[in-house]
Amino acid sequence: MTPKKQRAQSNNQTCFKERRIRLITSRFGRIFKMRCTTSCKNLVYDLLYACEAQAKSLQYGRDMEAIARTEIEKNINKKIKTCGLLINPIIPYLAASPDGLIEDNTIVEIKCPFSAKNTLNAIDAVTNKL
């Protein structure tokens, strides 16, 4: 997938199809935390057939991402470039979709938790374990 096609990935059908045929880093935790006694039926079903989630909390995160990116850029005095889906060139069934890149060697993952939407700053959110 070319970088141009990767941008605006949360609304991009091509990117969604590309993600669907790969193991994405956002799913690694669920895979690695599985016990050997746990059935993998639900996980396999989710990986192969699950539709894109539309939860209110996910929409909030998408809506706030640009605002958060701008704040991060101000705080670190660097530009964050959007990057889309990054496919491992050696193991092409592995991929990641970070929220941005800084100077092509640092990935950025932006989190805007719905549970912290009414806090004034990140310190309050962490202090209150949101």
TrEMBL record:
Pfam families: YqaJ. Residues 52-118 form the YqaJ viral recombinase domain. One of its GO terms (biological process) is DNA repair. InterPro entries: NF-kappa-B_Signaling_Reg, PDDEXK-like_dom_sf, Restrct_endonuc-II-like, YqaJ_viral_recombinase. PANTHER family: EXONUCLEASE, PHAGE-TYPE/RECB, C-TERMINAL DOMAIN-CONTAINING PROTEIN, YQAJ VIRAL RECOMBINASE DOMAIN-CONTAINING PROTEIN. This is Uncharacterized protein LOC112690658. It comes from Sipha flava.
